[in-house]
Amino acid sequence: MAIAGVVYSGKQYALYLGRQTGASTPVAMGTPSGVNGEFVELDVVSITDVDFAGGLVADRTLRTGQQVKRRTDHYVSEKGATKTFNFEWVCSNLQGLQILCELLTEDTSSPYAVAGNFQPATYKHGATTGKLATIVLKNLDSDKAAGQDRVMHSAALTELNFAMDSTSNGGRLVVTGTFMTGYQVATAATSIAEATSETRFVPTIFDCTTKTVDSLDVVMKSFNMSVGYPCERIGYQGANAEAEMYSRAGEITCSGSMTVLYDTNSDAFLATMLTDPGASASNLAPIVLSDNATVGSGNYAFEVLQAVLTSHSLSIEGAEEGMMVEIGFEGTAAGSESLFKIDADS
To answer: Domain locations in the chain?
Structure first.
């Protein structure tokens, strides 16, 4: 058989993210969204394929009778399987960031927050509750072969990481995350395209005019915050034994680190880290990065008001920029307190 002679470029792929259960016309869990107006493009540098193998139900055990595996010693099935998809995006539009924040928090407006007494919505096959997305990986090459597109529906965002570094990417916000689904991923060609109403939004660490830890001003070099909202598929239904429901009963976490100049203000953080935060609320260290003195009044902010400092790594060396200290933190919340807040608005 002759070779096809066709070379496809990964630069021709596009990544589209669309609301599903939270769409203007909600689409039930178990059904992909097909309305172009619900989709925005995440213009990533490169696209990683959906992980089909990681959650595949597989058994590859040598049975007795010979010392070499037979083909029958291999078993593979998509029934009961999960699929995952990872991405890295340098934030470029407001709608994409807002959709990600909605999926992460189940909140519907900025500033997006999760309270200590938060209770997840119901995630059940056929229901329109909860926050699920449809993700499309599309080859825009007009000569593409069949089976090169991906439509991953009923996808739950299980982790989202926000990072800014003054020495890379022009200080821009870099967002990485992981989606999972308990449904099969379609590989047939799709006609889905993104909406055309994307609003340019390029937040940077340099836009954060307010930079405080424990109410003390700091000189910020880098910041990252990771939020985890676990999701597990439960049960099975239909001819393909796809998910019957999702469980979102795991711990919701908020943690991260920041690198700041070691000066008379940041010198106090070691004592805070060494003091038992459970003994008194005064031992917490609120973290605020914002383009406005009041979070929610500007366009861009991260806030962890009940932050516990968990690590302290001082770089004692002769760097010309001076000594820097990396501070680890974890968010906490009780009752109606917010575990974190993310402001993303125009």
So the answer is: 10-59+71-344
